[in-house]
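Researcher: We're teaching a course module on how sequence relates to structure. For the next exercise, students receive a sequence and then see the predicted structure as tokens, so they can try to spot secondary structure elements on their own. Here is the exercise chain.
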Amino acid sequence: MLHAGSSLRGAAATLATFVQQGWADFAVPAFSTIRSWLLRVGYHALTRPLDKSQPWLWLVDHTIQIGSLKLLVILGCPMSQVPFGERALQLSDLQLVALVPMEKSNGDLVEIELENAARRTGVPRQIASDSGSDLKKGIADYCELRPQTTWVPDVAHVGANLLEQAWSEQPHWQKFIEELQFTSSKLRQTKSAFLLAPRMRSKARFMNVSSQLRFAQRVLNHLASESPCAKAVEHYGWLKEYRDDLTTWTREHKLVQVTIDRVRVQGLHSGTVSELESVWGEMDTRASTVRIAAGLRAYVTRYAPRTAGERFVASTEIVESSFGKLKRIEGQQSGDGLTVLSLAMGAMVGVSSEPEIRDALESTPHKQVDRWAERMLGHSVQWLRRQFLGAAKS
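Model: And here is the predicted structure for the students to work with:
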């Protein structure tokens, strides 16, 4: 489940096949047993003691599914174990520090949960998150009383905001997006649907704008070929008007992406600005490009540590990855609101040896999982729906 993406029932069926074919000889666990193991390992990760002898990094974010609950997740790593300069953070580097379903989220409630989380790791050296209003306010209040803790906003969200500010003011950008969407609406139910442009995200669209730029540039290259597709000429001939703009937008997006890629691995440190300017190379003098570059410099200058040799993490991308993996494990249940399978987050992170997993299972009876679910989650959307439909049937 954790490494190959199998479902609960798929994992049980696969093990049964091994035994039936004579490739293994053991009692085949039911899918419900595997689910119980997963939850018990996750609960153990959420409650076991963590090392308080060194300063920690916290990555904080919310995930939202159907229903009224948000899930506040804090993943952590001792600062000394962050692989700066080698690679970006991976789930195996992290530990589950806190997992809090919240009916309501504001700055005060977030601050309370941060205080609770500090009981496991001590006061962190750094917190990284996006700039959601409730998280930002709660973290700011927490850091105000603890000067040893520094907050760094996620660089990808900062870059997306800079692009949005620079491009949303440009009439050509608005017209380009409108024409792209209008063309897609015409093609969607036709034989030419293979020409559809990638969908724009309804939220945080500038986090994923590269797919639209890449598609438009490839179509332009195709239109400039010796024998372009007639349907492409018919539906995308208008793109030629945006050739110069696309060149600039692609260059500006690359400026942001290069920054994200660099900071994701190297982190923020006292020499980050000079490193980025070297990587950026010669820059266009267009006003929007200058504005974006200035915004990136200001971000690095403000949040890079002042202490020589110290580095901060500036990317929370791995948290988004964990949410995606959790939804994959939940399968169809991810559409039914938060369930006890949220505890699988604890099994997804870190590296557990066989003895550690055995210890987790032996020390964590399933009734502890049930009590946690009852206390933190109450009745799920799925449970309430079953009760409603059962009553309606009678």
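Model: If you want an answer key for the exercise: Residues 155-315 form one domain. The first strand starts at residue 56 and ends at 64.
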